[in-house]
Design a protein that fits this description.
With about 220 residues, the protein is of the alpha+beta class. The chain has nine helices and six strands; from the N terminus they run H-H-H-H-H-H-E-E-H-E-E-H-E-E-H. The protein has a domain of about 150 residues. Strands 1-2-6-5 form a four-stranded antiparallel beta sheet.
């Protein structure tokens, strides 16, 4: 059969977009660079959303088959892989910790609003690139019907009507408290969870973290 692509097209198709983008910049080809930057965003956004959808469906499956305690144990196993990176971040100075969290959150491909006051830095993704976008895409309505958990649990911060995908956030705090003595990052959800952005806070002094952050996940302050 007749070939569909030229050899050059196949070679270009196999190159990383970031490499093509750098080549365009170095060649001072601004229009090509803009096109490639948008392409790279679209490529990453598509892959990001696929993995969020897969994870949400997997979490929902565990919950519907075996309940909230099984989901909690599964999340403890999965989220625990994040703790080494958090432990490393906790050893860094405050400025570097904030920059590291912002670096991670930019991976959701949404703009961030970052504010600082005397006790903390607060980061909000506008909108949240995972939990909020799932809700806005209709994942909790027909035909997907992801679960809004109605039974209070430590993985819902004791709240009801809690989007199942968002349960990984309380678990991250729980594991951080257990292994480091305090949560490196703290999420304060909107009143209507996932309908508006959460506030992700990093406190300059551990002792300024509100007691409710510990009690809402069944923990006590363990600061030495």
């Amino acid at each position: 059969m007749e070939r569909v692509f030229t050899k050059e097209e196949l070679e270009k198709m196999g190159k990383r977009t970031v490499d093509l983008l750098i080549e365009a910049i170095e060649s001072d080809n601004k229009e090509e660079a803009k096109t490639l930057a948008k392409r790279m965003y679209s490529e990453f956004s598509a892959m990001h959303d696929v993995y969020v959808d897969w994870l949400a469906e997997l979490m929902n499956y565990v919950y519907t088959c075996w309940g909230e305690d099984a989901l909690y144990q599964a999340l403890r196993k999965i989220v625990n892989t994040s703790i080494p990176a958090m432990s490393t971040a906790a050893k860094a100075d405050f400025r570097r910790r904030v920059q590291s969290v912002a670096f991670m959150l930019r991976g959701h491909l949404q703009p961030l609003k970052v504010e600082e006051d005397d006790e903390k830095v607060t980061i909000m993704a506008e909108p949240c690139g995972s939990g909020q976008r799932l809700l806005e895409k209709g994942a909790y309505t027909s035909p997907r019907h992801l679960t809004l958990m109605q039974k209070p649990h430590v993985i819902t911060w004791g709240k009801t009507n809690f989007p199942i995908y968002c349960t990984h956030c309380p678990v991250l705090e729980i594991l951080s408290i257990e292994q480091l003595g305090y949560p490196v990052t703290i999420t304060f959800p909107a009143t209507d969870i996932a309908q508006k952005p959460c506030r992700i806070c990093l406190y300059k002094r551990v002792e300024d973290i509100p007691a409710e952050v510990y009690t809402r996940v069944g923990k006590q302050e363990s600061i030495t």
